[in-house]
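Tutorial, part two.
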Amino acid sequence: MTKKICRTAEKRNFGKTIVAFFLLCASVASSHAQTVSDRQGLAEQSAAAKAKGHVYWTNSGNGSVGRATTTGTRVSEKFIVLDTTGGAGLTVNKNYIYWTSANGGTATTIARANLNGTGVSQSFITGAQNPCGVAVDSSYIYWAGDVGTSVGRANLDGSGVNQDFITTGNGVCGVAVTSKYIYWANYETHDIGRAKLDGSGVNDDFVSGCGSGIAIEGKYIYFTATSGTAIGRANIDGTDVNTSFITGLNGEIAFLAADSNYIFWADWGSGGSGTTIGRANLDGTEPNQSFIKGTKGGFGIAVTGGNP
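Running the prediction step on this input gives:
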């Protein structure tokens, strides 16, 4: 009788074990499916976020501003059409596009437009000396005039213009700004300068070996090098300088832009003959010199959510 009771209990326990086992498997499978679904959802969100971003560039050949998505689609070479040739540095924030009018020496203005290309003001700021590079932070707009000797600054609404905010010497072009410092690239001395946001603590040779363009992302400074045929990189503190981070470019790369995923550059070409925008991963891999085609002497470049 005892054996019979024991066997009956064993059967019941065994049955419960089987049920528990299947319930556990179902739970694991559901959890795995949810994890896969979550990963797919995150990947889709990431792809969607990238697709929403835009890269902008100035076309020195016809004076227009071009735009495309950061994935290289919806290319509009004449996103903003202007009535003058020239145009150099360019930057964006959450509301506006800003660009300089450099034309070789006589330009004096910085332009602004809404992100959708409307509301163009070609003389948003006046009195600059062939303004070349431009950058913005949450309070100010900064620019460098390569025939002048200083970095200028103004309020984001264009007021409070100070053409001589930081004295730099001739040949300054690219400008970038972080939460602590402002940086500039001098193509005559081949140095990157740095100063505090209030204009103090000027160091004209913070990094050596640069060209005219500069961009900052995360803990690195990226800069044009080797007459525009290479892109260099250095730590944000100026150490570990590598002037051959990306090499073999078409040449005459004047400006750079970077976001959390990529480095972008415009191929100006010989005398403004370039027709492409390039892109590479932030670690310098997978450079694509023809990421976007159809530009007209692309020069300045900027990317939403990026730098400059």
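The chain has a mean pLDDT of 86. In part three we will examine how such features are distributed along the chain.
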